[in-house]
Design brief:
The protein has about 350 residues and is an alpha+beta fold. The protein has a domain of about 120 residues: Nucleoside Triphosphate Pyrophosphohydrolase (Alpha-Beta Complex). The strands form two sheets. Strands 1, 4, 5, 6 and 7 form a five-stranded mixed sheet that branches. Strands 3-2-8 form a three-stranded antiparallel sheet. The model has no long low-confidence stretch (mean pLDDT about 90). Bound molecules: iron/sulfur cluster. The site of iron/sulfur cluster has 14 residues, from helix 9 and helix 12.
Length: about 350
């Protein structure tokens, strides 16, 4: 089967019209590829447009502060992607004279760029015959060619990469790579693939063997770790008490309210005891538990969160300390925060 020719012809007719498909500039391709990791095209598109509008080239990105980069990224999650991009932009200015590399061997040495992203950029921008292997490619190849190793295993990655390498050529390898991914996204979808009108129906291993809903084999997941976060939201006319998270845990460097992490969600009395120990509150204060708790799922963790709101009975002057910062209510929407904090702020209408 002339897989390359068939799938690239399909792509030319069926591909979606997306801004990063109109350029071979490695900076723009890099931005789009990083944004689209773990993000659907529909959601990623507006972020891509905002990102390249704010940072139109690698030099603009390198000159920005980390806070500015995180602000543009806000809501997209997986903030380490944004931090790595910022780091890489500065590296490109210092080590590559501001010219974004487009060869696989150089790209793979940059922070945040793995085999997939390096292959995507090199094939699209430099016509290097490097096959990409992402979730879409694994699904398409598992079904058509009958790979039966679990998703995420080294075996399936190597097998699919080798097979795809046998099809990719120096002639427009970027189109071939994008064609396989687009076919997986639009046609050979995880659920309800379009088998009846599929161009590979006669050759497809999964279709012929009634295995479409079995392939690819699911990955064997590690159990998620449970965590219980208890937040204290202190509201005064001056602002709200917040702090910036450290860099070695989830939501690195993002802002949040004072937090007590424990082995369960705690009561108001336990929260008061903790906040007095932390010298967070004057004694004259009323604390109420927010009407609902939150559950937030991350890749390897399940977060249970409870929010308590402290309303001083009389006006109190809160003192900022090395640990806590007082943020004026008007400025909170400019701070990069996790999706969990964002959701609480929206649900509680705490910032009018
Ligand atoms: S026949 Fe179905 S499972 Fe096979 S490639 Fe086509 S859409 Fe995918």
């Amino acid at each position: 089967m002339d897989f390359n020719r068939i799938i690239t012809e399909w792509y030319r007719i069926n591909k979606r019209d997306l801004p990063w498909r109109k350029t071979r500039n490695p900076y723009f391709i890099w931005v789009s590829e990083i944004i689209l990791q773990q993000t659907r095209v529909e959601q990623g598109l507006s972020y891509y447009l905002r990102f390249v509008d704010t940072f139109p080239d690698v030099s603009a990105l390198a000159k920005a502060s980390e806070q500015q980069v995180l602000e543009v990224w806000k809501g997209l999650g997986y903030y380490s992607r944004a931090r790595n991009m910022h780091f890489t932009a500065k590296q490109v200015i210092q080590e590559f004279n501001g010219v974004f590399p487009s060869s696989f061997q150089t790209l793979i040495t940059l922070k945040g760029i793995g085999q997939y992203t390096a292959a995507a950029i090199a094939s699209i921008c430099s016509d290097e015959a490097e096959p990409v292997v992402d979730g879409n490619v694994v699904r398409v190849f598992s079904r058509i060619f009958g790979f039966e190793s679990p998703v995420g295993s080294t075996k399936i990655f190597k097998g699919v990469r080798e097979k795809s390498k046998s099809f990719i050529t120096d002639t427009d390898p970027g189109t071939y790579n994008q064609a396989v991914m687009e076919f997986g996204a639009l046609f050979c979808k995880p659920k309800n693939p379009e088998c009846e009108r599929c161009i590979f129906k006669n050759e497809c291993y999964a279709f012929k063997n009634n295995l479409v809903d079995k392939l690819p084999l699911p990955k064997t997941d590690k159990p998620k770790r449970d965590r219980w976060l208890n937040y204290l939201v202190i509201v005064t006319s001056e602002g709200m008490v917040m702090h910036q998270r450290g860099i070695k845990d989830i939501w690195a460097s993002l802002w949040e309210f004072p937090l007590l992490e424990s082995d369960r969600l705690i009561t108001v009395n336990e929260l008061i005891e903790w906040s007095l120990n932390e010298e967070l509150l004057p004694t004259e204060i009323e604390i109420v538990q927010f009407e609902k708790d939150f559950q937030h799922i991350l890749t390897h963790q399940r977060i249970f969160a409870r929010f308590f709101i402290a309303l001083p009975k009389q006006e109190v002057i809160l003192q900022a300390s090395a640990k806590w910062t007082i943020i004026h209510k008007d400025s909170i929407s400019d701070l990069p925060v996790s999706r969990l904090i964002d959701k609480f702020i929206a649900d509680s209408s705490i910032i009018d």
